[in-house]
Amino acid sequence: MTSMIREARERHRITIYELAERLQITPGAISHLEKSERVGTIKIATLRRALQAIGEDLEMASKPITMKSRHLMSARTAAEAINTELKAGDSDAALRLTTQAIDHFRQAKTSSEIADFLRKPGPIEDSNWDTLLATAIRWDSKRRGIKAPGWTKRPPLRIDWMPGVDTTPSTEYADFIRQQAEPEFLEHRILIRERDFTTR
Fold first, then answer.
1. Out of 27, 140, 141, 176, which could bridge 146 as a Cys pair, Cβ 3.0 to 4.6 Å?
2. Where in the numbering of this chain does the HTH cro/C1-type domain appear (predicted)?
3. HEC assignment per residue over the chain
4. CA distance linking residue 155 with residue 127, whole number of Å
5. Rounded Cα distance, 142 and 105, in Å
6. What is the pLDDT of residue 199?
7. 154 burial class (0-12, 13-18, 19+ CB within 10 angstroms)?
């Protein structure tokens, strides 16, 4: 998993034989140490002792898991990707990304992952889509009992809007969706249902 012993040896121009002499073990044992470090089976105490014999010390630290480290979107990366798709004229892809962002948000379990997901994104240039993403995150936060950040509070749109529909829907269809739409979205004049937030 790491190669700290070999890299430290090379930095200090120390051969396997010289390190073996310092640790009072065989050169073959040094090769075994370096191999066990690469596969992640070396003991921390052994790694520290080998590095100290070279003239270095082992420092360890932990860091919070981020959405990126788990290959998941955050609100920031979702907004960037949605902007890209809208510039390319692909509203279907923008809707899929919005849905996927909510799915990824649901996969955020630890407080550090949730906080990382909820950091304020840059604006989406189309205000309808910007309001959709913010409202979707606010809606899902409330459902999960998570305090929604202030940036997710947006004013309602000026007219009713159905995401992903490029033409004006018929009055009958709009009324049909309106009857099934989530109240949080209706307050923002966005005609979308909970089922529309299943991963596509």
1. 141
2. 5-58
3. CCCHHHHHHHHHCCCHHHHHHHHCCCHHHHHHHHHHHHHCCCCHHHHHHHHHHHCCCCCCCCCCCCCHHHCCCCHHHHHHHHHHHHHCCCHHHHHHHHHHHHHHHHHCCCHHHHHHHHCCCCCCCCHHHHHHHHHHHHHHHHHHCCCCCHHHCCCCCCCCECCCCCCCCCHHHHHHHHHHECHHHHCCCECCEHHHHCCC
4. 10
5. 12
6. 56
7. middle
Q: What's the N-to-C CA distance of the chain in angstroms?
A: 36
Which structure tokens are listed for 14?
A: 């120390």
Instruction: Please report, for the chain, the start and end positions of each structural domain, with discontinuous segments joined by +.
Output: 4-54, 68-197
pTM: 0.70
Q: Over the Cα atoms of the chain, what is R_g?
A: 26
Q: What value, to the nearest 5°, has the Cα angle with vertex 83 and ends 87 and 70?
A: 135
The C-alpha atoms of residue 149 and residue 151 are separated, in whole angstroms, by: 6
Residue 53's identity, in one-letter code, is A
Residues of the chain under the 70 pLDDT cut: 199-200
